[in-house]
Specification:
It is built from seven helices and no strands.
């Protein structure tokens, strides 16, 4: 890597860290305010259902499929293609939102519904990682760049919100999360997803070898 490339990457990274810090503080406050509704009676366990569309296998399959679609779309189309650029943005979005949700899970260490049936059990240690929902965070972080980039011209793209909505309900039916967990996950994924669309060049494109972002469809 040349001196210019190293300098450009360091500058971009510094701008990213500065921008993310400025953005994250009020957003984390928003997440905590959302969670405070638990004390107002919003959170309650739904009837347990682990069959059919609510099964863990189906939920896991959706999660794996979303990751496979965004990676395949990004590598196949490349960053120079408008749709491919959006796929690269979803990679940024999913990665950053996923890391953020994991940090928050350990920070808040909230008990899940099946771990006491009490939405006010916070800071319980490594046993409990209910807040926020990582699965809903993933779905929201995946669909938001598509909505932000294409919904104005194609309103039907809003239908992609069905993915985080369905996943949220499935997590509730599995008694793996409280209502505020899935709302916070949706907010986190949506916020990071929108933020990823404000960058001219996705971070994943900057840090990966240049050849990967060209797009395999242009090579054959």
């Amino acid at each position: 890597m040349s001196y210019f490339e190293r300098t450009h990457l360091m500058t971009s990274s510094n701008l990213y860290v500065h921008g993310f810090r400025r953005w994250s503080a009020p957003f984390l406050l928003l997440l905590f305010l959302i969670s405070s509704h638990a004390y107002a009676g919003l959170d309650h366990a739904l009837g347990y259902d682990k069959d059919g569309l609510y099964s863990q296998n189906f939920q896991t399959g959706l999660e794996v499929s979303v990751i496979a679609v965004e990676v395949t779309g990004a590598l196949w189309l490349g960053n120079d293609d408008p749709l491919g650029h959006t796929f690269w943005q979803t990679i940024d979005s999913s990665a950053i939102a996923g890391i953020s949700s994991t940090v928050l899970k350990y920070a808040f260490s909230r008990a899940r519904p099946y771990q006491g049936d009490n939405p006010n059990l916070w800071f319980r240690g490594s046993c409990c990682q209910s807040f926020p929902s990582g699965e809903v965070t993933l779905q929201a972080s995946f669909v938001t760049p598509f909505i932000a980039n294409y919904a104005k011209q194609n309103p039907w793209v809003w239908s992609l919100e069905f993915l985080p909505v369905w996943d949220a309900y499935a997590r509730l039916k599995s008694q793996a999360h409280w209502q505020t967990d899935v709302i916070a996950g949706w907010a986190l994924g949506t916020g990071v997803g929108y933020w990823s669309t404000t960058r001219a060049t996705p971070i994943s494109v900057q840090i990966l070898p240049g050849g990967l972002s060209v797009g395999f469809s242009k090579r054959f």
